[in-house]
Amino acid sequence: MRRFGPLHMTALAAGLAFLYLPMLILIAYSFNASRLVTVWGGFSTRWYASLLQNQPLLDAAWLSLQVAFVSATIATILALLAAVALVRYGRFRGRTLFSGMIGAPLIMPEVVTGLSLLLLFVALGLDRGFWTVTIAHVTLTMCFATVVIQSRLVAFDASLEEAAQDLGAPPWKAFLTVTLPILAPAVAAAWMLAFTLSLDDLVIASFTTGPSATTLPMRLYSAVRLGVTPEINAASTILIAFVAIVVVSASLVVKRELVTRP
Amino acid sequence: MNQRTARKAARRSVGSVRRTCAPWAEPGARPLVEFCSVTKAYGEVTAVDRLSLSIYPKEFFALLGPSGCGKTTLMRMLAGFEAPTSGDILLDGVDVTAMPPHRRPTNMMFQSYALFPHMSVWDNIAFGLKQEGMARPDIKARVEEMLALVRLEALARRRPDQLSGGQRQRVALARSLAKRPKVLLLDEPLGALDRKLREATQFELMDLQADLGLTFLMVTHDQDEAMTMADRIAVMDHGRIVQVAPPEEIYEQPANRYVAEFVGDVTVAEGTVTGIAGDIVRIEAAHFGTLEIDEEEGRARMDAPALVALRPEKLNIGHDEPPQTVNKVRGEIWDIAYLGDFTMMQVKVGGDDGPLVKAAIANRSRRMERPFAWDDIVWLWWDVEAGVLIDP
């Protein structure tokens, strides 16, 4: 391996600092004993304790977890189907259009996605709340999940599924017993990605939710408008830790699969 | 030692049984597999063209041809992975043309082996039996029988990625044999093995096929593989079968120039028939002078164009002119390839624009100095049994 010179080290440190210093400051201040956000008053976990008393915030967190869980599950199933269609059925009529439409939300500004979904829900006369946010998050996350599963499916040896059929498994059973278990790490990674994207989302949720359903990012954002409190720092720190755990385990799952694959 | 001798003896007896086994020649024999005028077209490209073929029970049948000749497509149609554009496929008298792969009583050993990477060797072999809904104790017995057959008992709990190439090949074989298919399909079965292992495996496969009394259909582009193992070979070209015959006949009596040139080395002399006397056909060929060949089937016509195929090992080579008046030609050595067991010479005959003739000499002595060198002027000669008349 090449050794880093001082210039490289400086550049790397600056880059990492740019990315992570704000978060580190936030995490540090979440353990601040003082009520004043910018004044260090000693180490304390009191804001984490008071967080547990903050019912609206806990409700929002619980709602966000539910939305993330349901939308990630639906998005992953749809993504799996879309990836199979795109990879397996070769050049069917409208494939390019289909592929483009799945990928579009990747580059679409979230404001546009959110606004168009809001218009759709209003036009359909749907009561905005848990389900509209969930559906909106499926739209947002499915394209990411599709990309993850599709890239694994491209490398998948189609003769494995043929072998299963040859040995007497009907196509659906060959898919469930051979293809799906082999794809499982990619499917898990796609689910976790969709989960964290949904958990983080503020813009689309703001457009598509109603008064009854406030997600955690929305609650945090509105709280910040009244002034940053150490409690918010604590809640954000928990969110960061949660997302970090999910992302790290997703990448470990994928990496482990790469290592064990022959 | 004793055991080894016994196994050798068994192999010999198996071998002798195999050679006398010719189910296609028996009167009243019923084919196990029948392709009836099968065509497979992909858009403009015709992969298999109105092909008819019968394969008989207990045959070891090989489809031989270059890549793109349609042999793999033909096999995949029998397995059910491709549907014919037209024509019928019969298996044991039943029309299976529209039957999906999972219902067909055929099993396939894939070129890539296609072992399930997330299952142990044991589960790979048991997979097909579980699909059948076979009872647990029966599955156990059958898997153990298969493991013993391919001598992998010790590795039953391993995953495919913990096995060597040869071991994987044997797992794939055991898995495809476990359901006792009516026909076992082998797609380039030995392609991924190194040479030594390939030779050993060839004989194992032949023994297995004879012992189990199964019908094997093999696809290969490797003529040695086909010649060694198959009872009959179908040579394919552009979606059609050019010749179906036992290996000896494919080699010694090729139907046409394509077969002669695809299987083994050959020199083809082009000429005109100038005399027929009994079985002896006389041909005048450019660069070769007068050729005489023994042709028992009466295929020669006076004054008709004729092709004579000459195999390198049937030619003699020497510095002195042979006494015979026909079947000889003078030339210059252009190339010498020493291959250990024999040496292949390329001899330019009939001047600079003449053809290169291949002649092989067996290296029966260990003497290093060779009697021939580059640019030597030599004579090639052969007897009336050497050449064979072939179609264009």
Description of the molecule:
The complex is a heterodimer of chains A (262) and B (392). Chain A contains 11 helices and no strands. Chain A has helices spanning 6-30, 46-51, 55-88, 95-107, 110-124, 130-154, 158-166, 171-200, 203-208, 216-225, 230-260. The longest helix of chain A is centred in the first third of the chain and has 34 residues, at 55-88. Chain A is globular, with a radius of gyration of 22 Å. Chain B has 392 residues and is α+β, with helices and mostly antiparallel strands. In chain B, helix 3 (121-132) crosses helix 4, helix 3 packs parallel to helix 5 (165-177) and helix 4 crosses helix 5 (165-177). Chain B is globular and about 75 Å long. Chain B has a 6-stranded mixed beta sheet with strand order 6-7-8-3-9-10, sandwiched between helices. In chain B, strands 13-12-11-14-20 form a 5-stranded antiparallel beta sheet. In chain B, strands 15-19-16-17-18 form a 5-stranded antiparallel beta sheet, with no helix packed on it. Residues 1-18 of chain B have low confidence and may be disordered. Chain B has 2 domains: 18-259, Rossmann fold, CATH 3.40.50.300; 265-390, Beta Barrel (OB fold (Dihydrolipoamide Acetyltransferase, E2P)), CATH 2.40.50.140. Chain B is 27% helix and 32% strand. At the A-B interface, helix 7 and helix 8 of A face strand 6 and helix 3 of B.
